[in-house]
Amino acid sequence: MRKIILSFIGVLLIIASFFLAKSLIANKNKPKPILEKVTKTVFTDTVKNGEVQIRIPANGSLVAKRRVEIYSEVQGLFKMGNLLFKPGQKYGAGQSLIRIDASEHYASVQSSKSNLYNSISAIMPDLRLDFPEVYQKWQNYLNAFDLNKTTPKLPEMSSEKENYFITGRGIVSNYYNLKNLEQRLSKYVISAPFTGILTEALVTEGTLIRSGQKLGEFIDPTDYEMEVAISKTYANLLKVGEAVDLNNLNKTETYKGKISRVNGSIDQTTQTITAYIDVKHENLKEGIYLEANINGEIVKNAIEIDRNLLLEDQQVFVIKDGMLDTMPVTPVYFSETKVVLKDLPNGAIILKKPVPGAYVGMLVKPFQANQTSKP
């Protein structure tokens, strides 16, 4: 019985093997399915070489071009004035910023004036007898002498004898001591050197001011400059008087400036050169952060494209016979988003936007504006 079962199983295996072999032979002779080639639609651009203006980006904050730090050279009480000494207060040119009580020093000046007048008056009889030819000019000097006005300049000495006589009486030394006191008296009033605005006030009315103390800061709010650091690579492109486009961080406002100065040395630490850009505008304030685009050299026979279109081996994709190919190029200048290239022939069709997974030989077709998509 066992032999019959094994014989039956063997016959079944032979029959199954026959049908399996027949099926494999039939499938082998079937034609392979033809895969449909996919053509990708891409954005393209046609190369048209020309002149490309290189723009060097830089940034910095505005600082008033005319700035004065106010210090006191004398000591005294800060007197009340017509305008409060507060940040934001505007002053005209020559208007008093600070008045310091000078009553004690004023008395010393008046005393010295009186001494000088008395010294000259005392020598008038001797001048009339010994130097009659110069008597009148010294008399005229005394007649014009006013204790409430600035001391006038001494008359010119017309002879050596007159010079010895006047100097020997101590008149010349008294005169210069008096002028020194008058000069110091003028320091009790600090006036605005130009029309501007007070940006910092460190004292208030009634404060005892000390000699050498900083009192505040005063600026001209109509004229600013911006300090920018440029790579030494572009040092030869910086020219005094060159126009510069400026804009705020939001790109909502633009201003016009110009390069006023260029530092003559390169920073050894950062290997940059400092340039200063002048800018004037009623909307600007000190401390505003601006971006500048400095015009560099003009590159001829070049084209500017997006930086992400340049491959790592300094090649770009071009379209030839409906397929992607690569072409070597020479990068001239890199910015944050753009690159200037040379050695691309006119009329060459390049990609305008990067294609994910692009490779040499990929089938592509240019995007048409009126092209309709198939359902």
Tags for this entry?
conserved putative lor/sdh protein from methanococcus maripaludis s2 fold; six-stranded antiparallel beta barrel; alpha+beta; 5 helices; Elongation Factor Tu (Ef-tu), domain 3; OB fold (Dihydrolipoamide Acetyltransferase, E2P); MdtA-like_BSH; disordered C terminus; single chain; four-stranded antiparallel beta sheet; efflux transmembrane transporter activity; 375 residues; 25% helix
Account of the 3D structure:
This is Multidrug efflux pump subunit AcrA (Membrane-fusion protein). It comes from Mariniflexile fucanivorans. GO terms for molecular function: efflux transmembrane transporter activity. By secondary structure, the chain is of the alpha+beta class. It folds into four domains: 42-51 and 303-366, conserved putative lor/sdh protein from methanococcus maripaludis s2 fold; 55-64 and 222-299, Beta Barrel (Elongation Factor Tu (Ef-tu), domain 3); 67-95 and 192-219, RNA polymerase II/Efflux pump adaptor protein, barrel-sandwich hybrid domain (OB fold (Dihydrolipoamide Acetyltransferase, E2P), Beta Barrel), CATH 2.40.50; 104-186, no CATH class. The protein is built from five helices and 22 strands. A six-stranded antiparallel β-barrel has the order 3-12-15-14-13-16. Strands 4-11-9-6 form a four-stranded antiparallel beta sheet, with no helix packed on it. The longest helix is centred in the first third of the chain and has 28 residues, at 103-130. Mean pLDDT is 87; it is low at 371-375.
